[in-house]
Specification:
rod-shaped; about 100 residues; 5 helices; mainly alpha
Amino acid sequence: MALRRREIGIRAALGASSSRLLRAVLGRGLLVTSLGLVIGVAGAIGLAPLLGSVLYNVQPRDPFLMAYATTILALAALLASAIPARRAANVDPAVVLQAD
């Protein structure tokens, strides 16, 4: 958020609504999260033969386990993105632009 503060301030000054700013910040966070989840699941599937010897009583390619882990990570990322997104939605453009 700190790196994009000026951009968000300009958008707010030009009339972007707080919901639009919220969606922009959340969308960026979820885009990065989705990319990471796809790479992670592909890596886990690719390394399944190696992981099979380490896991006890769990199949490395268990679709339920993959879906569960992916859902938990996605929810954690959503929560982690929601905090800066709420802050961005309430930004005062005059304060942000004056600070630069």
